[in-house]
Amino acid sequence: MPNDNNQDKEPGLFVSHNENNASVAQQEDPIAGTSNTTTGQVEENASAESTNLPLKKFIEPTIRHGLMSIVRSSWLNVLLVFIPLGWASHFVWNPTTTFILNFVAIVPLAKLLGFATEDIALRTGEVIGGLLNATFGNSIEMIISIISLTQNLVIVVQASMLGSILSNILIVLGMSFFCGGLRYKEQRFNITAAQTSASLLFISVVSLLLPAAFYGSTVNAETAAKERSDILNISRATSIILLIIYFAYLVFQFLQVPVEAFKVERQVSRIKLFNNNNNNANARDEECIAPETPVEREQAKGDEEEESPSMPWWMAVLLLLIITAFVAVCAEFLVPAIEQVVEQWHISETFVGLILLPIVGNAAEHVTAVTVAYKNKMDLALGVAVGSSMQVALLVMPIMVIIGWGIGVDMSLFFNVYETAVLFASVILVNYFIVGGQE
Question: Is residue 6 part of a domain?
């Protein structure tokens, strides 16, 4: 008897409703495969067999199922106890303890942030999911930078922006390639989306050369104040242009480009379909998704079967907002604590901005990118790593310049020659790695 009752099925899973599609498809063309079969008929049958999947109905997860999925998402959730400890230490204990506790508290929050973003990406797609994750991940850099600007810590803000870009395109992207390579011999990704983000990142980095080039060409400036004023004017004009480019990119991403333009280019194997009637060597190449080894085939099959949203969409969005707020509070407590640690540990402000703050701010991106890369979702991993760097360069840095302009802080896009050269070389290296669409 047919059973249409799906209430006993586990929420969040796809339930089959048409188990006899294969036999029906075979009955539609009984003469397929005979000596009189044409190439078009063979191609049609092969396509029907390769795409002959049961019709599936998605059961929306319940609230209870979503809560259990959040609790069981990672063993790192046991570290959530450090959140109240880190907040309390800001008012009770010394700055070093506050720094350590809040730093540890961000680790499970970063994991939950990636979990919520991945759940939303299952509904919106990997490209939009990567853009969403990069946006929420950069909220930490935004809050830390605004707090630092209000305290006139321009060097810390500039170093943190530079460190955030470098850590994303070097550490996060490198670890994603490494962890994905541990499981898969070869991984492919969407060349269009990746090169779009990389090209925009390159444009933003080139724009950072303008203040440095102007500084190097004005050694005979009348006064140092006049030179700083000119650099500020160039930086502010450049920031406005970068913001326009970023919003134009959003329009391109969501309104102008059809969804088909961002389909993932998977690894393919070629199947030659011959015309037995003509008995010649004319062949047609048919693309089909096929992992290289049986192990990878089982892994990919398992991932596809298990990948379904584990919570209602509104719960995933609410979790994303709450976790982002918690991470922002922890990061906000880190700022005054780090200032005291600088004095006690005898380290420079540049080290704090270039090394420490990017580690805190990019914890969410690092965990998420490595996790999805291990699951062979390289589009989402690149969207997190390269997309986050692109958003820092096109959105966060220009906004910091505009905010500094509004509150009377001389925030500019001027970096010294060494910092500019390192950033430029890193972006060139990333463009070289992703140009082929595989790693």
Answer: no
